[in-house]
Task: structure prediction
Amino acid sequence: MATAFEFRLLATDGAARRGEMSTPHGVVQTPAFMPVGTQGAVKGMTERDLRENGAQIILANTYHLYLRPGDRLIARRGGLHRFIGWDGPILTDSGGFQAFSLGPREPGRGSRVGVPQPARRRIAEDGICFRSHLDGSEHLLTPELATDTQARLGSDIAMALDECLGHPATADQARQSMERTLRWGRRSRDRLLWLRSQPPDAVLEDGLTPIRTNPGQAQFGIVQGSVYPDLREESARETQTIGFDAYAIGGLSVGEPIDAMYDTVAATAPLLPADRPRYLMGTGTPLDLVECVARGIDVFDCVMPTRNARNGQLFTGHGPLNIKNARYGEDDRPVEETCRCYTCRHYSRAYLRHLFLAKEIAACTLNTLHNLHFYLDTLARIRDAITFNSFERLRRTFHQRYSLRLLS
Result:
């Protein structure tokens, strides 16, 4: 088992990169996609399903695990890997995005149509004060608490606390948010370095809870700045001076036009160290994966393949397919003829439509199996294409075949 975080760049094809990311719980071949296991589980999946589909690393949510069952309980169980039965690499987010999502909701999205709903969080210099979505209890998420929580969870990669800004945002708002993220990043890093200086068997005041459960945990800093190139450049430069183990691009896929997102990634990725992995947070569609690899991104996560599966949308090489469509009622074909996932090898569109309309739990499992296989297989083919210097051909072919419109 590896004891330190490392990254090796194995091949390039234009700006696209093929690499190998070593963590205490295994090696991740990049570019890589991380299935999202919000509460310590990818919805509808077992760890065996994830492995058989080719998942190398998963993402777990610090905000949710802090609230339930609690990071201290998980630490006493030996850490998150042992608690959930996953022996591969895990990345945990800081909880910053979840705090962002607790902000004011638009009229029509609350319990009373047309009435704005109050915010459940407040951002200040100290941290993010929020009310739990479970019981309304108030909490203050500071950079130090986010770091401590992830240390107790024992993920292989921990994210520094950042402020995620929505779109649109003025240049002044983006600057204030970016500068706060830098200050929080320094506090996060200082806290992790302090934790690393403590004895391996150090425990909390209760004498039972380890202060950290993975001595080899790495920490990523986050570049912010909305869609403003000068702010992104400043953020990338100053975040690197803090000295994180690697770096992520945050604050995208929050409502900005797709071209603005691509332009921001293209401008920011080259500013990050070539010998460290580059993580684009919360993105995206299958086309986003291809296009952002072309712009130098190594690691992705997104809820789209799992969430859309639960809503009856299945991804194929020709675009998304809505299994609810009546035309599939007597369709004996698999979701995709060329797909080798368990779902496509065993079940028809007609059966999957029946399960979905009947609200069977199996619909969630089988749809998610297919969508995750599609995402993970797409990244595997991208890795092969970069290795053999044929990524641009794959990119062109993907664009020619893939439609953003639902297949009818």
Summary: Residues 158 and 219 are 5 Å apart (CA to CA). The mean pLDDT is 94. Residues 171-197 form the longest helix (27 residues). The radius of gyration is 21 Å.
